[in-house]
Amino acid sequence: MSAIDKDTTAAAIASAVSAGKATAAAVVEHVLQRIDTLDETYNAFTAVVAGRARQKAAAIDAAIAAGKAVGPLTGVPFAVKNLIDIAGLPTLAGSRINADNPPAARDATLVQRLEAAGAILVGGLNMGEYAYDFTGRNAHVGPSCNPRDPTRMTGGSSGGSGAAVAGGLVPLALGSDTNGSIRVPSSLCGTFGLKPTYGRLSRTGAFLFCDSLDHLGPLARSVRDLAASFDVMQGPDAADPVCTERPPEPTLSRLDDGIAGLRIAIAGDDFEHPLEPVAATAVATVAKALGATHKVALPGTARARGCASLITTAEGGTLHLSRLRTRAADFDPDTRERFMAGALTPAAWYIQAQRFRRQYRQRVLEALQDVDVLIAPATPMTAPRLDQITTTISGVEMPVRAILGLFTQPFSFIGLPAVAAPLQQSGGLPIAVQLIAKPFDEQAALRTAHWLERRGICAAPAA
Amino acid sequence: MSDPKKPNVAAYVDAMAQVVGVPIDPQYRDSVIANFERTAQMAALALGEELPDDLISAPVFRP
């Protein structure tokens, strides 16, 4: 078979397996071997479903030998943040408490859709407890560690997803994003990540955190892999009341269209500080390459951040009420008191925040009237040390946990699709920019990211 | 002396925890209060301006 190495993309694996140049069984063994060797360091996986993966691989190889049709992700190993149901396992959502729940009866919708396209689930991934996290820390199983430097944070809450992809353990992982939990780890670990439009992808079978703001989406080492996985995961799902009834809008076939015709601008004002110089340089580099000079201010962004946080804490605290009553001591100390405070949020604050959400959406869409893709920083800084609590930017000391999601939160608040596109720094840590598009226009953001990737400006090689 | 204009967050947390039925162990109380104070600061910033009466939120509920 042709060599499968840590950098082999999902597209290359699918192509090799479909053409009979590699077997799905060999791909799975390669991945299991890498997990076995490296995950002691990265702590990305909380469960490896080796038996299931081998069984699925054998079935795929048999189907190919029999000349049967195979899907666009044939033989592609993937893993999912452990708030996404895997049949036969309890859905942990990063907690100790959920380990006492019965195992999931079936796979989440997105797992089913990826496997229907030929992909092979290999395991569940570490995450911040109940997704209330930007760091990738977890008191129960330890932090996920950044493959670019394992003494540093992955970012969170989809920390295991970032580590598994950046570490070359799997070419594709699913995460969730409420205020930035796909885009923050993508930035700190140096992977591509897609937070689709709110409601674009089904969340059925995911242990949600904050229903009003929760999204699921992929992380990968190439934009093509983001698009290929996104395309097969699209489609209505009556079981998720938020999931759109729009027919799927394929993006893969448009990736090579380039950026001609796209109006690209830079997010100004609230998106220009606080930024470490490396983050500002990343935005400037991408803007220059794309020929973007026009800055757009998004009025109300400071309020948007506050309202997103209010909705998050109120819905999260309410979701966990019964557990806070009976299992308080079993929560991660990083989340417990935040959830308790959230459960006490006055209804007036929550409802006002929901109303402002609609006003901010309107203001942003007006500001983006003549813009197709907006460039913004993904994080204000590169990966902090695992034990780091604060950072100093422009002479001001700030808590790391509070600032990691500053630039991602406003866009998930109003559900705009965003791709995190990483820049690798020679001898340094990666950092990503966000490419934000209008609702249901993921293809514009993906095309732009792919254009940057083809020119070597953005890249996500395995560590 | 406590500032009479500043809301008594500790009293609110203690009372609401009772009303909502979330017992807060003494070892967590200070941190819950500190977290609620941060939420209150966000609310003051985020909700300081009046919203028009005809601005409704966007619920997804479909009967």
Please describe the topology of this protein.
The complex is a heterodimer of chains A (463) and B (63).
Chain A: H1 10-18, H2 24-42, E1 45-48, H3 50-65, E2 77-81, H4 109-116, E3 120-125, H5 159-166, E4 172-177, H6 183-189, E5 192-195, E6 215-220, H7 223-233, E7 264-267, H8 277-290, E8 295-296, H9 301-319, H10 321-326, H11 336-342, H12 347-367, E9 373-377, E10 390-393, E11 396-399, H13 400-403, H14 409-413, E12 418-423, E13 431-437, H15 442-454
Parallel strand pairs in A: 2-3, 2-4, 7-8, 7-9
Antiparallel strand pairs in A: 1-3, 4-6, 5-6, 5-12, 9-13, 10-11, 12-13
Helix pairs in contact in A: 2-3, 5-6, 7-15, 9-11, 9-12
Chain B: H1 9-20, H2 26-46
Q: What features would you describe in this structure?
A:
The complex is a heterodimer of chains A (463) and B (63). By secondary structure, chain A is α/β, with parallel strands linked by helices. Chain A has an eleven-stranded mixed sheet with strand order 1-3-2-4-6-5-12-13-9-7-8, with helices on both faces. Helices cover 36% and strands 14% of the residues of chain A. In chain A, strand 10 and strand 11 form a beta hairpin. In chain A, helix 2 packs antiparallel against helix 3 (50-65). The model of chain A has no long low-confidence stretch (mean pLDDT 97). Chain B has a domain at 9-46. The termini of chain B are far apart. The model of chain B has no long low-confidence stretch (mean pLDDT 90). Chain B is 52% helix and 0% strand. The longest helix of chain B is centred in the middle third of the chain and has 21 residues, at 26-46. Chain B is extended.
